[in-house]
Specification:
Elements lengths: L30 E4 L2 E7 L1 H10 L13 E5 L1 H6 L1 E2 L6 H11 L5 E6 L2 E6 L2 E6 L4 E6 L2 E2 L2 H22 L1 H15 L13
Antiparallel strand pairs: 1-2, 3-5, 4-7, 5-8, 6-7, 8-9
Helix pairs in contact: 4-5
The protein binds zinc ion.
Length: 193
């Protein structure tokens, strides 16, 4: 018998077949297991490859269609890279709402992505978003919350860019500006799930 954590957003139907960890969270398909315990912060590389090759949702493990939803933090939104394969929109929105209890989390819906590598890590270069959904504190985030999270997240990126020189800083400025286009419009328009 599965017992979900009290206060967890409604688990989408496709994710209800997943095992549930001891904290009451459904265990994403792509996550690695060690000694019978899921490790939410580690992706199983075989499952990552299967998600990409078979077009399986990284969260529920079922086939996804043309719209691919990536879960991002503000830094990933600036760099347009994700570290986990895409998911269904409803699976991603559920996970963002659950994850954003601790962090501002973005669901980035796009039709295209390409695989790349940073060192030995596989990354997903994501295409132009068709929709974005921001979450904070388990609900849809407002513009101020997203702006605050960017202000906290971008200084280390600027530090790296400054070390690379003026052109790198200009490029980063452009990337940050590009990301801010997708912020929630203003507080009054933020809705809640
Ligand atoms: Zn799914």
């Amino acid at each position: 018998m599965k017992t979900y954590r009290p206060g967890l957003p409604t688990v989408p139907p496709r994710m209800r077949n997943l095992p549930v960890n001891h904290e009451g969270y459904p265990v994403p398909f792509v996550c690695a297991w060690t000694d019978g315990e899921p490790n939410f912060s580690v992706v199983d590389p075989r499952k990552l490859a299967a998600c990409h090759d078979q077009r399986w949702c990284s969260l529920c493990g079922e086939l996804i269609g043309q719209y691919k939803a990536f879960l991002l933090d503000p830094v990933m939104a600036v760099m347009r890279t994700a570290t986990e394969p895409p998911a269904h929109i409803d699976c991603a929105r559920f996970s963002a709402a659950a994850l954003s209890r601790a962090f501002v989390t973005l669901v980035w819906v796009t039709r295209g992505y390409s695989l790349g590598h940073v060192g030995s890590t596989t990354v997903f270069h994501i295409g132009e978003p068709e929709q974005t959904f921001w979450y904070a504190g388990g609900r849809r985030a407002n513009r101020q919350e997203v702006m605050d999270s960017f202000q906290a997240a971008t200084p280390p990126l600027y530090e790296l860019a400054r070390a690379d020189g003026e052109v790198a800083v200009m490029k980063l400025d452009m990337k940050v500006k590009r990301a801010t286009k997708y912020f929630p419009k203003h507080a009054a328009l933020a809705d809640y799930v």
